[in-house]
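Re: the 277-residue chain
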Amino acid sequence: MWGHPGYGIEIKMARKIVVEYRVYDGPDALAHAAAEHFLEAVQQAVAQRGKARIAISGGSTPKRTFELLANPQEKFLAAMPWNKLELYWVDERTVPPTDKDSNYRMTREALLEKVPLKPEQVFRMEGELGPEEAAARYESLIRNNFRLEGAEVPRFDVVQLGMGDDGHTASLFPHTQAIHELGRIVVANHVPQKDTWRITLTWPVLIEASEVFFLIGGKDKADPLHRVLQGPYDPEALPSQLIRPKSGKLLLLLDKNAGAQLPAPGADGKGRLEIER
């Protein structure tokens, strides 16, 4: 993992991570590419392990993607092995599941009401509870579902992340306590800049996943994405820099606005960076 004095992160020899980024013309093309990638990653996990445990994030781009996955006019609804899926959330706001700001509500309306996922396959964060209780209950649920013992960390098959214009990912916001958490699976994170609490998976859990990808759109993401990938290492200010998967591979699906400050991709829309810190 990246090591840096003062972050409570174990310092190890620097090693390389290969970042592949794929750039698409606009939000519709990006959402379609994300739906394709979800399908491919889930099918691969099911073929290898018999099930796919995926953790998803909120946002407008994932919403478009989920709508495509549920659209009977598209191939995804029929092709997805829904009966082999377990669905989890990367983070949640501290609101009831009926609230307009709830990540769960967005997913329910865009996806869950339209696809053959049973309630026992869907594991939401309980944002209506106190944040510490909600985090503890979700960690307990994950420990039970993954049959974890002691300090074992769950390994999701697919983790889908977004990134904010402040460089945050999941609910790991700049200069917040959750950045420093190494031992927990799920934490309540106080976010003073938004005057709220969030519930979030921790970054040591996110980097264990077999497949980790970011889904990022919008011109307001271009500068922070450039700094996350090519700027100095400062995870206190840019928490997305913590996402360095153990697999050594990270995929970014971007629209052209978000990717505007990265090295120009090839004719196939794909670019590659090797990062060693």
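The beta strands are 16-24, 52-56, 85-89, 91-93, 158-161, 186-191, 196-201, 211-216, 249-255, 270-276.
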